[in-house]
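Quick one: structure tokens for this chain, please?
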Amino acid sequence: MLFQSRQANRIAFFLYFCNQNLFEMTQEAIKLELIEWLAKLQSNETISYLKIIKDSMKEENDWWSSLSSDQISGIERGLKDIDEGRTIAHETVKQRYEL
């Protein structure tokens, strides 16, 4: 029985390792496929759309950096209220305002 257990563990590890490598290889293959597709792409509309997606993923385009100091301090006050237990249950607010 011990032999079968070790053999099963070895097989499980091998399959896990193969799946990890396959996933990484698949990701690289997908990237190459996309590069080839993009190089041949003629649609200006699609190219513009892809550029918007790419630019939106830049760290400096984080919405937090576009907030005013008043907005940031308001959010920080709200988070502090949560940390200190100064909250009202959603159900209570719904009842109070008849929502």
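The chain has two domains: 1-65, 67-99.
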